[in-house]
Write a structure and sequence with these properties.
Number of strands: 7
Number of helices: 4
Number of domains: 1
Strand order of the largest sheet: 1-4-7
Radius of gyration: 17 Å
Strand content: 15-25%
Helix content: 25-40%
Distance between the termini: 37 Å
């Protein structure tokens, strides 16, 4: 398949987690190198290949990922700045999701819907 026909959906949350988790690698010659993944630098040279983005937010946490999921706009990830920096406005579409689906039917039956409402409101407010 020609490369010009490939499109991607970047999960921005996990791209920022990669900055935390995978800062070093061993090259083919056995040398350890440092390389911090930059999600925006990956998108900017070819924004037309990223029509969709998974948008999730994170709060700092002492775990392997470095973050815990929180509703979009309530964490520390630079999501608004990221989305505003991507050219070709009107072509890229953010899709909210929260991998851990907070709440349960007994103690917090509406928590997932509340998180979705907060996240949608924040993402919608960023358009302008």
């Amino acid at each position: 398949m020609p490369a010009r026909l490939l499109w991607f959906e970047m999960d921005i949350y996990w791209a920022f987690v990669a900055q935390h988790r995978y800062q070093k690698y061993t090259d083919a010659g056995g040398v350890t190198r440092t390389s911090i993944f930059d999600p925006l630098a990956t998108v900017l040279p070819m924004p037309h290949r990223f029509p969709l983005f998974h948008v999730k937010d994170g709060a700092p946490a002492n775990n392997a990922d470095g973050y815990n999921f929180v509703p979009v706009g309530t964490g520390v990830l630079p999501l608004r700045e990221f989305l505003n920096a991507v050219p070709q406005k009107g072509y890229h579409y953010p899709n909210y999701e929260q991998d851990n689906a907070p709440g349960n039917a007994t103690t917090a039956p509406n928590q997932s819907l509340d998180s979705s409402r907060i996240s949608f409101g924040n993402i919608a407010g960023w358009r302008g």
